[in-house]
Queue: 4 jobs
Job 1
Amino acid sequence: MNVLAIRGVSRSFASAHGAATLALQATDLQVAENDFVTILGPSGCGKSTLLRIVAGLDHPTGGEVLLDGRRIAGPGADRGMVFQSYTLFPWLSVLENVCFGLRERGLPRAQQLEVANGFVAKVGLRGFESHFPKQLSGGMQQRTAIARALANGPRILLMDEPFGALDHQTRELMQELLLGIWESERKTVLFVTHDIDEAVFMGSRVVVMSARPGRIKLDRPVPIPHPRHYSVKTTAAFSELKAELMEQVRVEVRAAQAAANA
Amino acid sequence: MKPLVPVAPGARIVLGVAFFVLFVAVWAAATFGGLVSKTFLADPVSMLASGWALLTKMGFAYDIGMTVWRVVGGFLIAAVLALPLGVAMGAYKPIEAFFEPFVSFARYLPASAFIPLLILWAGIGEAQKLAVIFIGSFFQLVLMIAVIVGNTRRDLVEAAYTLGVGDRGLIRRVLMPGAAPEIAEVLRTVLGWAWTYVIVAELIGASSGIGHMITDSQALLATDQIIFGIIVIGLIGLASDLLFKWANRRLYPWAALGR
């Protein structure tokens, strides 16, 4: 059963001299329950635009997005999002950040704390509940952001290069942490990245997008069983898929550069 | 000294006090040394002596109380009205488009120039004094609050929407708490300006207040009293500023982090 259905979604922007620039070609994508779909593509290919449209933060110029068969019209708590930039509310502690959505729903305080404490523990931040975001490292802030999104119990978790601003080592640890949470919680995830290793390691399906105007040019299942240990990154299956994706992405990066120089 | 290298806390206090000492020393040298005539500038000692006489024999404490009450009263009325309007303008662009041009114009109207009109409308009582402070602070506050609220980080707004807040929740739980420390700083700054307006208001048509005492002293060529009055205003301004700073730090500890 599909949780998310993207049907013919396109997006064009009005440019300075009135002509419309197409950022995203009519795109179709289905995401099944418990699926972890990674969207891979060169920068500026419209993958973030697609994710923002699903989140309801941007409006498609054509097509529609259905969540559980209902057309979405704006942002909502049923689609949790983790951004690349650090978006914790700086005036709230870690625990209060995680409680944010629960409080909005009017959940009794005791229940809010119970849920929030559970997710704070899951992302390994026990002991940091009363810290303010500015007192945390980038990795810890993103872990809090993941806990905040998950605590709300969304139908689908949208992630827009959530580890893009982190250093390499922290990023790998975060990938394992998120994968572990996904393996135990079985959430449905749509994850945008430009990192091929990340796309293969995290995803049960990898979708490659073309250079601008973006469209889906490739959709591959990842033939690696769960639970995944970080050592799968050195297996033949991993390397084989990575090699294919690298070729595909390279072509698109070249195309994007050629378009920029033209 | 190297550019931008911070100074140690102890040295900071010593340096800050040192300039006050230097200032008074130059003043004392100029007056006691006979460089400046007593008619134009009183020396520090006679200034303090007449200040003491003002407080103990001439009921100057009452004048100080009146001035403080006018500043605080006029400022509070302005702040209470400016806050909701400023937040509404910052949050809703049509409301901003409606009020902003007028408020931008009104804030350049000098509050002191309204005094003759206000005396005509409100007499020379307290209402007129409060109105001067109000005109001087209200429009400034509205504009600055609107800008602060309008500058809320858009990614925080988007994050809040994906966590399920509606428009009212966004204003109450994101725009207002996020803007609060900067709004508190603006209130602190504008309170300082309110002090300059109150004195102007008291120079004309007042029967009490620090400004009234200063005009009376002018007629008597009592420069020592005038200077004492000015120093009192400075000290009260400094005290209220420090109090505000301290309160802001206590209320918004998160805003001071990582600065």
Note: The first helix of chain A runs from residue 47 to 55.
Job 2
Amino acid sequence: MTQETGTGGAGSNLAEAAEQVNKLLRELEAVVNPEQHEALTEFFSEWSVLSALRTTREMNETDETSSEKGA
Amino acid sequence: MADQARFYEVHGLAPLELGNALADWFRAQEFEWRTFGDPSGHYTLQIRKASTTRSIFGLNYALTVSFTPQGDGKLLVELGGADWTDKIVSGAVGALLITPLLFTAAYGAWQQSELANKVWEFLQGYVYQRTGQPANFQIALPYYVGTPGYQPNVPPPAGSYNPTTNYAPTMSTGFPPVGSQPAPTTPSWFSQTTMQPIFDQQIGKMMSWQRAMEDGKVTDEEIKEQAAQVEKLRQSVEQDLDTSQRIKFAEVIAAMENLEAVHKS
């Protein structure tokens, strides 16, 4: 197993993971009917909110930790 | 809470005056701005605070404020994301830069929510200063395809409005198009300008996000509630999929979980 190092490797992994999501999303979008599309849209939208809440929570915690260190 | 739209009592103040005052106020805080009006009285202001670095990482503070006079003398004020031309450019930068855009979208959405609150505060203060009367308002509920009870070609019920959905600048002028445009019946999951999924870009408009961000903080309880909501939707969605669709759906979820894991690593 190879391990990539440096920012280029990490960025490459991120880009690949994002591209894979996009590819599969397009494939799914192509095979659902309008009703399923609408329901899936709601699901993915709420999923994105969940993901954003988690990220924001982590950023808040990081900010709080930095503030405490600075105090 | 950053509402998306409000019906304001502005006591005769014109959208043009309010828009210009708001533009001046943001200009004093070193925001870029541009405005657009039409003969019907509809007036749009776009503001942003941008830098090259912020643009690359999707952290530009960008907002569209749209003013539409109502028949009863009130003014409909809508807030939305600003599809600034630079965003289109950043979407074309390449796959390596697109992923950080996703990563920072949540933080950018939170900042945008703060920007919306500033707009509301300014408008209320300005109307009171100019007229000596409070700028009473009513939260306006969007009425569009997908809203429960929605019927095409039927005017929105009291307290509702047809959102001005398309803020994308036109290629010829660089400014937003005039008036409302009907939402497509099945909008694609991908932006036509950035070719990226639309879901991250719409987080700021989601009620679940607005509720959770009401106090500017995210608690474990709020994350738990949202996770439960997502799980409920997943089960509901799966019931209506056939076997091959369900397999594809599972692959998408696995890929999204992997993307989140890569972000955190």
Note: The two ends of chain A are 44 Å apart (CA to CA).
Job 3
Amino acid sequence: MAVIAGRPNRGALLPSRLSALSSTRAGSLTIFIVRRILWMIPIVFFVILITFFLMHLAPGSPWDRGGGRELSASVRHNLDLKYGLNKPEYQQFELYLWNVAHFDFGLSYQYEGKTVTKLIGEGIPYTATLGTLAFLIIVPVGIGLGVLAALRQNTRTDYVVMGFATGAASFPNFVVGALMVVVFSVEMARWTDHSFFLPAADFGVDDHLIMPVITLALLPIAYTARLTRASTLDTIRQDYIRTAWAKGLPERLVVLKHVLKNSLIPVVTTLGPTFAFLVTGSVIVETVFNIPGIGRAFVVAVTSRDYPMILGTTVLFSVVIAVANLVVDVLYVFIDPRVRLS
Amino acid sequence: MQLGTRIRAVALASAGLFVVAACGGNNSTPSLNLAPAAQQILRVNTGVEPNSFDPTQQTYTYEAAVGRNTFQSLLQPKADLSDVQPAAATKYDVSSDGLTYTFHLQPNAKWSDGKSVTASDWVYGYQHFLNPALAAGYVDPFFDTTIAGAGNYGNVDVSSASAIDSYLSGLGLSAPDANTFVIKLAHPAAYFKWVVTLWVAVPLRKDIVESAAGGTFPSTDTTKAETWANNANTIVGNGPFKISEIASKDHVTMVPNTNYWGGTAKLQQIIYYYISDGNTEFSKYQTGALDIANVPLADVTVVRGDSTLSKQAHLYPQLTAFWMTFNTTKAPFDNAKVRLAFAKSIDRDKLANDVQHGTAKGLASFIPNGMAGYDTSDNNQSFDAAAAKKLLSDAGVTADTLNKYKLLTRNSTGSKTLNQFIVDQWNTNLGLNIQLDVIDSKTVTSRIRKGNFDIYGPDGWGADYPDQQDWMDIFVSGSCHSLNWGCPTLAGYDALVQKADTELSQSQRNADYLTAQKMLIDQAAVAFMYQPYEYDLVASYVNITHTAFDDQFAPGDQNYFTAYITTH
Amino acid sequence: MALAAPVQQAVEWEVAEQQIGLWQDAWHRFRRNPLAVAGAVLVVFLVLVAFLSPVLVHLGLIIDPIKQEVEHIEASPGQFGHPLGTDELGRDTLSRLMYGSRISLSVGILVQGIILPIGLAIGLAAGYFGGRIDNLLMRITDIWYAFPDLIFVLVLVSVFGPSLLSIFGAIALVNWVNLARLVRGQVLAIKEKEYIEAARSSGSPPIKLILKHLLPNALGPIIVTVVFGIPQAIFLEAALSFLGVGIQPPTPTWGQMVFDGYEAIYANPTSVVFPALAIGFTLLAFSFIGDGLRDALDPRMRR
């Protein structure tokens, strides 16, 4: 595999015994995928392990009300018994792992009788909607801006686009969210006497989506634009592109045929981190805009010491990111003819 | 029962203040200007989705707002909070030894599905509530310390169904006939009539609970015991409303219970939204999407200055008080003079008028304005910077000793803002340099429980019911580390409060509680600060009856049965 | 998962014989980049503000940032002698902004100072020695990458108390991954070059090889990554304030000012706008500097 900074060289781990199987590309691809999936298991295990023990280190129990009417000591003791919190930690951990293997993530401590699986299930549609919409914006806008900037390198267009990209990446998403709320909710309401303005919070499949999605998408767009610009510049300088230009082929043709195709290769590498941005970005954006997705559920779970919920969402996050990286790596194999798997 | 004359005067004056008809001045006129049925919809924001629709499990005000409308307890407070009045029970008798309460139920009380409410439903409901495996938040101390046989609540083995069942059958609950519900107490408690007004003490339908669970189930199975509460169809209550729709994470809708013994409500729908952002709520009120809204603290001045909004805004007192708690187990806060010095160096007027924008009133005593026991005659804690400094020097404590102590603060905007002001007051008026210690809420709770703090605040209490017992019991020495975080020891306090709790003569109780309150103030058990009010916007076409004892942010929710919308 | 700044592409370039020439060349290019220069100017300005603000308060030229004026809560800019208004306790916004720069700059720079040795050591070891060490280290970074940095920071700060040290340490600990991976990639790219082979076959010990030959040639992208890490750290500190795991009041930090100001967003929007812009422009300045450095150190990006 081509060595690129920051991307682990997983292909190099193939043991020699399997080299016979890897003589076919399809065979080696399958092995590659299987190996990666198998690697996900210990990774997720360690994530759970570390999260579990760190969580229990933090003082405060799930039954502390945090300011309301506190439960009496005996009731708290009973609750501990009921949820198995009185057992030694390693036992609780074993029990948890056993349940996870059966896809049982336990009951949430905050919401009576609701399982973690159900709560996560309730939150997924919101987060997925925002994430998908953001993604649909990120890819064309990010790539388009990057190519544009590269083709117009060092002109005003380039500076404007890159300046915007850097700006978007620099202003933290909660800052952007807050500023948008000020302009499009508060001030707009004031100017139009409350007749037209964007809603400052909550979820709805209407104009409620505008500000959260934009806030979520800005950083990945900037990141994608940057990387696209850099790789497009690389491609442009290749000799065969110069030859095509020198031959007088129209720019559009050259761009579409050659530049885009080859520039997309490193851009596919942005998809992994983009996914990560969307997942972690959702945590803050959902908090700012009060959207009941998984990101916000996670934050609430942490501050409430809802251990099962914390663990459940953490597992979900790490699996999602690991799968996204795997998909990216596989796509990479197909897109880049130079990539070898052994 | 006889009320002390002063207290009656206060109560009546409060009644005059607090019974507000928010309908543009029109007040109890024969023509109510009722809007047509299609418009009889009340939209309120309760802010948070209830954890449970089972009233016995509800502990927060945003949950009780649903529970007390879908179910009804035996008695309810009068509008002026001077006493209780009938609700699901028409009347009650107390035996001469104060141990037996006989409740005569409403003869034609019906569930929302039409069946009659019987006394055995009440027994079942109380037993469900008192099941130790369910760990309902409001059992202790109201019910487990009063009802006969309930004292062992915290020690029952919740993994053994037989242990739970024998505990429950040993409780002093019985139904001698279909219309009579009898509760036996372990010892006399004059305040028990208030305890039964709590929204958690309701009847339940055994057949519905069991059918929702798929059949009978052991008392240890708490999930099955609560299955009925997850679906609007199986939430059958005896209250004036019933739930018609549960839209998770968005809202819950209630419609009138046409089988309610008191008739059908005028409102056709009540919708509780779960908008947690105060600014969004405020904004939705202004666009007409909400009929009642709480004004966020930062926007109070905006509303006051707005000609339209200010007419719709109401300042409702809350039966709540806030104070600062000192860890009296270590020097120098074991010295009452030091605590008093701190109490006297807080400018409560500035706090209430500036920091809280007039949505609070300074309180240098304990019981808040609006219920029996409110008394401001003792002003030993009122603001006096010079006297405060003198107290401190009399106690022989220097700034250096004090400056290493910290004010433990919960990590919320309200707490941080208030505490920064308080610390600034102490530092300015006493010449100190005390710092804040801002920590996340759960950690704070675990620390104060262990007594691992110097000063903590704002600590406070909201009345569960308007009887002094609910308040005074906070500071008994037995509550050290559970409510009385600072553990101040006051000679004679415990005995006095216990006497007043079991005493049957109301006037004697009032006098005793007054003496106890004086002890708290004079020895600065804590530094009392203020009573919060609630600044709410109520649309001009909404007519609600508010009592001081309303729960936060759903003003009038104790009386939505009589609320209505006028034409607009 | 680190809320990562863009990961840098490997810069494969031949090493110039004279390293001094490279740096001078880079400096010239940097100076001719208007955005980078603007960023540098802003950062210098911030550093000055950070150092001078206590002096200004002492001289009475600006108001003490912790002095409360509860009669003038949430004043608008210009009211009552407060050029940028006041906050929820009547404290002057301008002086709080100025003091906030001290925290932001310290967080940004100190955190990178902690990250640098960790990331360098691990990345160099992984890249040079390869094999099992590389695998182990890359697996660790995989787990770390999949780890919610939010919970890690929250727990660390809850356990050790919200002191500056624990907050800095926690942020640093979750963000060293980027640097380690970049360093590793750089080492891998350079290690097969002939001059390295030559040095190795001449019997140089690994440490000397790493420090004398590998590291200096990888320095460019490393510097760029470190500089890009500064806004990342500032961002995390500000984000932590949103969840209340931040620096204690009444010390003003920009993140906290945004969070506290959000409550009053309808009544006094500028209480959010000013600290938000402060955060944004500071991060922007560092990003421009980073961009400029990268362009300057990359001989291929010629005009």
Note: The first helix of chain B runs from residue 5 to 18.
Job 4
Amino acid sequence: MTGVPLSWYLILSAALFGLGVAGFLLRRNIITVFMSIELMLNAVNLSFVAFSYQLKQIDGHLYAFFVMVVAAAEAAVGLAIILTVFRNRGTLQIDEINSMKN
Amino acid sequence: MVTVVIFLTFAITAVACAVNLVVQRHPISAAVSLIGVMGSLAVIYLQLGAEFIAAVQVIVYAGAIMVLFVFVILLLNAGAERRTGHSHVARWIGIPSLGLLLMLLGFFIRNLAPASEIVRFGDFAEGTPKNIGRLLFTGYLLPFEITSVLILVAILGAIILARKETD
């Protein structure tokens, strides 16, 4: 075998996405939950680049680029929100940030 | 052969770092694991002929975004998370849904990606900054300009959210 089948890249992408979802569901620290979201975005980027290879077009690279830009904006705003939440509540546990629940 | 070895090395590193991200209870360990995932993914992008995306991955993701994360973790002095009551929604709906999603993804990958499609390093090397830039400023000009407005809004939002109330 002289190369890697394309499906291996997609399987890697699916595995990383699944791990990101698991982290999002199981972690209780708001920063770790946010990092799980970044992991999912990375997994999707890998799919874009892999399909871009299959179709021999660079449009997929541009989508990956836009995902990165949106992730950067999201990280800046999200971390500012986390900072504000911590300043007001003094906690990073998402179980204790439940004032909209009851 | 070399391609397979490189792919397997970095794919296993990425998955191991991602597992570490999920099981670690200290945010700074999770952040370092995420940097490992992003670095490994940059090499895999390079294998797929996406040299510009690989460079941006290292500069923007592993560089800028993760530094921001680490800064906030240090600023908030975030310690290890406490093990609290389990979320029943996550356990009884979320995890089965995740299993279902992965099964669906496996089904589609089996059907849509033929095993005969082999990735060879150097077969597709169009992802250069020149080509990306040309397409970005012709076919994708409107999304690009909207992105710049989005970044501006994000900067303003972050400043307003994160500043201390002075009055």
Note: The first strand of chain A starts at residue 4 and ends at 5.
